[in-house]
Amino acid sequence: MSIPQRPIRLGIAGCGEVVRFKHLPELQRLPEIRVVAVADPDENARKSLAHLFAISGCFADLESMLASAEVDAVAICSPPVTHAELAVTAIDAGRHVWIDKPLAVREEDCRHILASAERSSRVVATGFHMRSHRIIQRARQAIDDSILGTIESIRSVWNSPRADEGIPSWRTDRTLGGGALIELGVHHYDLWRYLSGSDVAEVYAQSRDGVRHDEAATVSARLANGVLCTAMLSERTPHAIEIEVCGSVGRLRLNCLRFDGFESYGRRDVAGSPGVRLRSALATLGGLPGGLTLMRKGGDYKDSYRRAWLDFARAILEERPPPATALDGVRASEVAAATVESLRTGSRVSVS
Ligand SMILES: NC(=O)c1ccc[n+]([C@@H]2O[C@H](COP(=O)([O-])OP(=O)(O)OC[C@H]3O[C@@H](n4cnc5c(N)ncnc54)[C@H](O)[C@@H]3O)[C@@H](O)[C@H]2O)c1
Question: Which of 19, 56, 188, 303 has its CA 20 to 30 A from that of 135?
Fold first, then answer.
C-alpha cells in the first residue's frame, strides 16, 4: 500500500458533541491529519461545524462524501446504532476507519464490522482514546515492567455529569447505546483488558434508572486470569476518571484528570504516612512545569484525544495496528452486552 507523503485526508461522519468539543480542536493541532470533509443528515450540525472549523467538504451523508471528497480515512462519530452501517460502507470503500466507542450495541453489528475489518488491509480502529492517555500509558509501562507483581484487582470510576436538557434521545436509552453502563462503561471494560492483558469472563451489574436509563451503574467482574474488577459509573455526579490497579507487590492509583495523577505504592508504603506524602508532594512539584503547560492546553484528558489521533495517523503511516482494533471494540461491546443481560436477569452473566 502506498504511504501518503502529505497529511492524511480525513472525512468525519457525524457532527455532534464529541466532534465539536473533543476531536476537531485536537485534530487541528496535528500536522499529520487534515480534516477535509464532514457528513451529517442534520443540515445545521454539519454546516455550523464546517464553518467553525473551516472545513471545505460538507455532505448530507457518508456516501456523498465518499463519492465527492478525496478522503484517505473516515471517522465514524455518529450515534452507536448507526456505526455498523457507516463503518462497513467506509471500510468496504477502501478507507482507513476510526469508529468511535462503543463500537456497536447489537451483536450482529459487531460481527459485520469485524468481518469487514478482517477483509480490509487498511487500519480499522476503535476510538478508545483512553489507551493513548499519558497516565494510562505510564501505568501500562509500569505493569509491563512488573512493578506490581501479579495483578489482583482493578477498581475503576467514571463520572461524567450530563444535564437532561437538550440531551440526544439515543443517550437516554441503553438499547441505543446510551447511559453510564454502556456509553461510559465501555472505556473501563476496555481498560481492564488493556491493563491486565486478560479478557473479561463474567460480570454482575446493577444500575439506577431515572429520567433516562442507567444514570448510575456498578459492575463487578472477573477476568479470565482471575483478576477481580469493579466499576462505578455515573452521569449524575461531578467529573472523575480514576483507576486503581492492585498487585501482589505494588499498587497504582491513577487519576486521569490530573497532571500528577500517577501514584505508585510499593509493598511497604503506607498511604498517608509522612514519607509517602512527602514523596507525592515532591512529585507534584517536579511535574508542575510540564503540568502547567499541559493545563494551558486543556489538560491530560483533552490531550488524550490528540494522542489517540496521532496514534491512528502513525498506524496508517507505519502500516501497523492501531492501539485499539475493531476486535478490541467488539470485546468491550460484548462485556457491555453481558452487563445488560445481567441487569435483565439479576444474576452473574458469562461474557460470550
Ligand atoms: N471517545 C469519547 O470520549 C467519546 C465521547 C463522547 C462521545 N463519544 C461517542 O461518539 C459518538 C457520538 O457521540 P456524540 O456525543 O457526538 O453524539 P451526538 O448525538 O451529539 O452527535 C451525533 C451526530 O451524528 C449525526 N448522525 C446521525 N446519524 C448519522 C449518519 N447516518 N451519518 C452521519 N451522521 C449521523 C447526528 O445528526 C448528530 O449530529 C457516540 O458513539 C459516542 O458514544 C465518544
Answer: 19
Q: Of 213, 253, 249, 251, give the one whose Cα is nearest residue 233.
A: 213
Q: What is the pLDDT of residues 89-140, one digit of tens each?
A: 999 999 999 999 999 999 999 999 999 999 999 999 999 999 999 999 999 9
- Which residue lies with its CA nearest to atom 34 of ligand 1? 14
Instruction: Give the integer Cα–Cα distance in Å for 97 and 86.
Output: 10
The β-bridge relationship of strands 8-13 and 73-76 is parallel
- 171 C-alpha to ligand 1 centroid (Å): 10
CB-defined site of ligand 1, < 6 Å? 13-19, 39-42, 45, 61-62, 77-80, 82, 86, 100-101, 127, 129, 168, 183
Phi, psi of 201 (to 5 degrees): -100, -35
Atom of ligand 1 nearest to the CA of 85: 31
Indicate the SS3 state at residue 262: strand
Tell me if 258 sits within 8 A of 241, measured CB to CB.
no
Cell of residue 73, nine digits = 480515512
SS3 call for 346: coil
CA distance 189 to 183: 11
Rounded Cα distance, 139 and 241, in Å: 14
Counting ligand 1 atoms within 8 A of each CB, the residue from 24, 40, 83 with the most, and so the one to mutate, is 40
Matching residue, cell 461491546:
333
Check: CB of residue 104 under 8 Å from CB of residue 80. yes
Q: Give the confidence band of 4 by pLDDT, cuts at 50, 70, 90.
A: low
Rounded to the nearest angstrom, the distance between the alpha carbon of 79 and the centre of ligand 1 is 4
Mutate to test the pocket of ligand 1, among 12, 15, 18 (most ligand atoms within 8 A of CB): 18
DSSP 82-139: GHHHHHHHHHHTT-EEEEESS--SSHHHHHHHHHHHHH-SS-EEEE-GGGG-HHHHHH
pLDDT of 274: 94
- Segment 226-249 shows an average pLDDT of 98
Q: Which residue lies with its CA nearest to atom 17 of ligand 1?
A: 16
Strands 73-76 and 96-100: parallel
Average pLDDT, the chain: 96
